[in-house]
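Incident review: delayed structure delivery

Summary: a single-chain prediction request sat in the queue longer than the usual turnaround. Root cause was a stuck worker, restarted by the on-call engineer. No data loss occurred. The affected request and its eventual output are reproduced below so the record is complete for anyone auditing the incident later.

Affected input:
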Amino acid sequence: LGIPPDLSQELEAELARGQNEPLRPGYVRLSLPFCTTLEEADYVVAALADIAASAWALLPQYNCSNKTGEWRHTSVFKRFPERRWLTELGWPTAANHTSGAPTSVHKPSLQQQLQGGKSILQTALEDCAHPRHVGGLLEGSIEDPFPRHLRWFALPSEATAFAKGRPVVAAVAVLRPLKYPVAAAEEPVAATAPHQRQAEPPD
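Output delivered after worker restart:
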């Protein structure tokens, strides 16, 4: 992650104190299966480009738990709609078994999904300057705020200020992930049919 030794020691000491989990650095690894089509790969790359360029505008819609480091949307920050319990498990019976052909479900194309994501980001950019809810747990609700010089991420309030055209000056830790050189691709060799190959001159 490009963390210098002195910064690494400070981060480790601060994390050992507890209640400062957002400071824990991490990374995301993206893997594409061997069966990925070119269309799917182009879709993933285009989506990543949109996220890298505009996803900062979504920050005012999220809060972060200083105890766990989890970022959650403000609508579900204290609720867990995806959590399921064993008592909710239902068993199939003859009464609720339906026969017949399965109903078809409309699945949007990759381009439709990409356009849908662009619309969400565009709306976020327009609403960012006037958020209905600015994430507060990282700014005012925590009892023991972490040192600003160790923070390596932006806050929702900084995203709002940036959207309003205000200067954003934050003393944050700068991480410089290592960049590995990309080997130059070899020049492709055009394949020729046997009848197109020139006969070699006789010795």
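Verification: The first helix runs from residue 5 to 16.
Action items: add queue-age alerting; document worker restart procedure.
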